[in-house]
Amino acid sequence: MHYVIINLLFLLFAPFLYLGLISKVKAFWASRKGPSLLQPVFDFIKLLKKDIIAGEATSYIFQISPVVGFSAVFFSGLLAPLSWHQSVINFEYNFIVFSYILGLGRFFSIIGAMDTGSSFEAMGASREVTFASLVEPGFFILLGTLSIYTGNNTFQDIFNIFNQHSGLNYLIISLSSIVLFILILVETSRMPVDDPNTHLELTMVHEVMVLDNSGPDLGFIIYGTGMKMVIFSSLIANIILPDNLNFMITFLFFAGIVAGLAVLIGCIESLMARLRMSHIPQFIFFMTAISLLIFFIIKIIPLGTK
Amino acid sequence: MIGFLLILFVISMLFASTTGRLEAYVKIFSIQGIIFFLIILTYYSHIPLLDFLLLLIETLLVKTVVIPVILIKVIRKNNIYREVEPYIPNFFSLVISVIIFVFGFILAYLAGQYTQDIRPFYFGISISTIVVGLFIIMSRKKIITHIMGYMFLENGIFLLSLSVAREMPLIVNLGILLDIFIGVFLLVIIYNHINSTFAREKINIDSLSCLKD
Fold first, then answer.
1. Of B3, B10, B91, the CB nearest to A285
2. Which of A107, A113, A138, B6 is a plausible cystine mate for A125, CB 3.0–4.6 Å?
3. Residue from B5, B8, B105, B114 whose CB has the most chain A CBs within 10 Å, to mutate
4. CA torsion angle for B113, B158, B33, A171 (degrees, to 10)?
5. Main-chain phi, psi angles of A162, to 5 degrees
6. Residue B18 and residue B26: Cα distance in Å, rounded?
7. Of A183, A197, A171, nearest to A140 (Cα)?
């Protein structure tokens, strides 16, 4: 039972620290002191105290879309495996539900953006749909491959690959981590795909979709993005970690890997330039290519050693 | 270990089919030379010492240093514009290379089921590398990228000779490399001459098609 409680607490509070850590790393590269790690919490509380202002052209869809978006992210967080390879809600093939619940959240954020009637937001929505449709095959090929490889069919068990030490396992672990890392960057619109700091409308993807949201809505959208990052980072941590360590050490390693990924994202945002808009589809398709590679590796390498 | 190297090789080929920069091709070729060097190192006990040393020199010296340096010199000397200029967008050329790799792996899977003489993983990667090399030759405008596609093709043949090592002695590869080396040399010389004849900055195969007797 305490697994569930600690995982829930982790899911609820880690997003703030994750976002704080990213901005701390970015401040480090810019030789600034930077805001404190808890700054996202203060921002969130500040936004909760404000009023919501909705445009005159908007309908009720604009008002429910942040709520649906956030609850979809939270629910998919309950399905995803967090620490100790345990997800809070566990049933067979829950990774399909995971992906489509996230898709539902994205759908609502898109129609919420289009509901404002702003052409900029519609442009951002169109880009978001393009990238999301390119991400999905890669993600499903990866999950299906891991499911075939481990012979399990629940989200928490298909990441249990680090049980024996073999070259094939290391290969799959490293490639899957790359795929999932690209997935984080695309899904949460971080640097090579989208610049979270820019407010030049022509180059934005995700930021432009939430231009009209304000107050608690905006707070929950930012919180939801942070939570999404924590969820996908914990998928990477689940792939890397073996499941036979003891209770405390596993959690420390898990939290360490998630924090390490936050640092990595911060470094990428500070050191890399944003990709040109026409180069992003091929960057995302690279992810699908690597997932296909993993699929063929698990089919072909065992054939050679026979 | 070899699995890691081969995967790196595949990723470098995928990157080659999608990159927009000309010098990235040269760097990829150099990296592939290092990958081959490391693969050959693991073959130490399987092949005669002389062959082994020759292959080490070939991969580390010729593939990694000499040919890339020559190509970089040609690019710098002729002021070739740094973009690759493909006929089709980079995104589709990545998609097509992925499809080629998928078919190569399917072929290797089928081949691995019926015969024990080949190593399927090597086989799939080498066959698809050869086809991707051909595809790079076909889909790019510049003559210098034709030379590079030709060299990717040769890398595929090198891997193929490793995958069917029992039938195809590694020394055959040395002959192939010599051919390629001379080929690159000739192409580079011809390239310089074409450039001085046409005396313009941008030459591609379109300007060759207007040549007449």
1. B91
2. A113
3. B105
4. 0
5. -90, 40
6. 14
7. A183
User: Quick check: B98 and A279 CB within 8 A?
Assistant: no
Nearest to A124 by CA among A70, A196, A66: A196
CB pairs under 8 A between A and B: 67
Contacts of B72 (CB under 8 A, 6+ apart): B23, B26
Distance CA A74, CA A194 (A): 23
Residues of A in contact with B120 (CB under 8 A): 300, 303-304
Tokens standing for residue B168: 């195809």
Distances from the Cα of A233 to the Cα of A11, A227, B168, angstroms: 11, 10, 46
Three-class DSSP category at B49: helix
Contact B85, B206 (CB under 8 A): no
Which of these, B172, B195, B196, B158, lies nearest to B63 by C-alpha position?
B158
Alpha helices by DSSP H, listed for B78-119, are 90-114
Residues A175, B109: C-beta atoms closer than 8 Å:
no
Confidence of residue A162 (pLDDT cuts 50, 70, 90): low
What is the CA A37 to chain-centroid distance, rounded? 20
What is the tens place of the pLDDT at every residue in B145-193?
A: 887 888 888 888 888 877 765 555 666 666 677 677 777 777 777 777 7
Which has the minimum average pLDDT: A188-197, A205-214, B42-51?
B42-51
| Complete DSSP assignment for A226-279 | HHHHHHHHHHHHHHHS-S-S-HHHHHHHHHHHHHHHHHHHHHHHHHSPPPPGGG
Q: Hey, is B83 helix, strand or coil? A: strand
Tokens of B62: 């010729």
Element (H, E) at B164: none
Task: Select the residue of B20, B102, B119 nearest A292 (Cβ to Cβ).
Answer: B102
- Rounded to whole angstroms, the Cα distance separating A2 from A25 reads 32
Residue A135's contacts (CB-CB under 8 Å, 6 or more residues apart) are A183, A186, A187, A284, A287
Q: Alpha-carbon distance A256 to A83, whole Å?
A: 11
Sign of CA dihedral A113, A116, A121, A122: positive
Residue A286 to residue A280: CA distance in whole angstroms: 10
Q: Phi and psi (nearest 5°) for A304?
A: -75, -30
Helix segments in A80-166, DSSP class H? 94-115, 119-150
Mutation to test the B interface, candidates A296, A297, A306, most B Cβ within 10 Å? A296
Query: What would the pLDDT profile of A217-244 be if each residue is shown by its tens digit?
Result: 889 988 998 999 999 998 888 888 877 7
Q: What is the pTM of this model?
A: 0.85
A51 secondary structure, DSSP code: P
- Ramachandran area for residue B86 (φ above 0: left; ψ -120 to 50: alpha; else beta): beta
Angle between helices B67-77 and B143-163 (to 10 degrees): 170
